[in-house]
Design a protein that fits this description.
Blueprint (H helix, E strand, L loop, with lengths): L1 E6 L3 E5 L13 E5 L1 H11 L4 E4 L1 E2 L3 H12 L8 E2 L6 E5 L8 E5 L15 H5 L2 E7 H5 L2 H17 L2 E5 L9 H11 L5 E5 H6 L10 E2 L2 E2 L1 H14 L5 E9 L4 E9 L5 E3 L3 E4 L6 H14 L4 H15 L11 H8 L10
Helix pairs in contact: 1-9, 9-10, 10-11
Length: 342
Amino acid sequence: MFEVTSFGEIMLRLSPPGYQRILQATSFDINFGGAEANVVVALSNIGVKTSYVTLLPQNPLGDATINFLRRYGVDTSYIKRKGRRLGIYFLEKGVGQRASSVVYDRADSAINEIQPGDIDWEDILRKTKIFFSTGITAALSQNVLNELKMAFKTAKNAGAKVAFDINYRSKLWSYDRANEVISELMPYVDILITNEEHVRRVLKIDMEEKYFEGIDLTFDGQKVLFERLQTKYQNLERIILAARRSLSASKNTFFAYTKDENGNIVFSKKREIEVIDRVGAGDAFTAGVLYSILRGLKSSQMLEVATYMCALKHTVEGDSLIVTEDEIKQALSQDSSGMMKR
């Protein structure tokens, strides 16, 4: 039995050492990452039984990708070996006033060659408690979108919960196209984990000017946004919204909110974040949410675990959060000050 199965594209990540720009680089550090893979790697590290579904080429790069996933305990038995190439992305890490930037080289990657029958969705999803994917996967190609829809329908029929993160990427599609596609997926979603901006811009939840202070939603605005989202999609069992404020590429604040067991909207504490590597932080947040749901934590505890995992990811190089369950328990006991453990 898998507690979480995810479906998406995992890519080779190439980054100049430190904070060099790509134009300066004479070498690149190698890693692997992709939103859905990042989530199951983080979960596997904290004791959740996970599986990952994708397509990878039958070559040494595909082998290395599978070895990466296995290293952290993710089940890879449903990965299909097919296709011509592994997608690549180049990450230039930002610092101070210079933002991080990404260059994709993922056209014609293996996952886009997926065809009906490549993945036995019924077999894997009848053994899965939560199926997770994101809007990134929905944006890749029509072939991938067709399989994602099939997976969502199969998960519902098999009794698995469907968790989804909108995860909008402007380099993959427009807001209008994202709205068109994701609106068709939303009726299958049980657990929505996303952020304020994607709710407003992709799901078209309009907010009046009175609910803003500058570009940020007010406290009342956040509650109204939540209620309007819940009214529009009444099938959602759980909604968890995150909000990030960037002071610079090196300093952010992050918090989240949801409804508690009494139907009241509750907020996490606001975490001040020192950024070493921002990529995958939202995925670490999602992992914290899914971990908390699976372990039956209260909503207030879930928010603290998820925001802590997000904050911690900013301090870890690579796409995936490498963390232990003991560290998560320290966060629950509020022992997450950063003091050295001796």
